[in-house]
Structures are given as structure tokens and as C-alpha cells.
Amino acid sequence: MDRVRKISIEILDKHPSQFGDDFTENKKTLEKIAVVRSKQLRNKIAGFITKYIKKEARHEEQLQNVQESQEGASIEQSEVESNEDREPIEIASGESSLN
In total, how many domains does the chain have? Predict the structure, then answer.
């Protein structure tokens, strides 16, 4: 497996924009880029590349979700802090301003 991983990473470093998350397309692209003598090895390399790209996409999505949730929490925190600066409004129990 180390050989497949090493070859796959090397190919991805040289041609990152030519691969995607579709195994069949990656297999065809690999045929054009490199000379792989066995069908089994070509499929393993294309499979690893596909799995690697999908994993990276999931990882990036998780990072974005974490950043968005942290931004939302900081906005809520700043709203709470700004509300603490205001003086409370007292409303008399018998008066109604909605008349």
C-alpha cells in the first residue's frame, strides 16, 4: 500500500487540477498521464486518488463549519456584551403605551 500511496501523492502533486472525485474519470486521466503496466495497480492508484480527494473535501467542509460556528458564537457574545452596557428600562405596571 505504501507504493500506491507514494505514487498517488507524487502524481497529485504534479497534476492536482486534473483529478476529481470520480473514479472512472481519474482512471482515464491516469492512463493519459502515466504508464502503469498493470490494470490492478492503475485501479488502486486511481482509487487512492479518488479517496484522498474526497477526504480532503470533507476535511475542508468540516473546517468551514467549525469556523462558521465560531463566528456565530463570537457575534452572539458581542451582542450579549453590548446589551450589558445598557441601562434597564422600567415600565410602570398600570401604564400602557400601546393605547
Answer: 1
What secondary structure, in 3-state letters, does 44-93 show? HHHHHHHHHHHHHHHHHHHHHHHHHHHHHHHHHHHHHHHHHCCCCCCCCC
CB 21 within 8 A of CB 58: no
List the one residue out of 53, 42, 58, 47 whose CA is nearest residue 12: 53
Q: Where in the sequence is the domain holding 39, given as residue range(s)?
A: 2-80
**The model scores a pTM over 0.90:** no
> In one letter, which amino acid is 56?
E
CB 51 within 8 A of CB 12: no
| Tens-place pLDDT, residues 15-26 | 999 999 999 999
CATH value at residue 36? 1.10.60.20
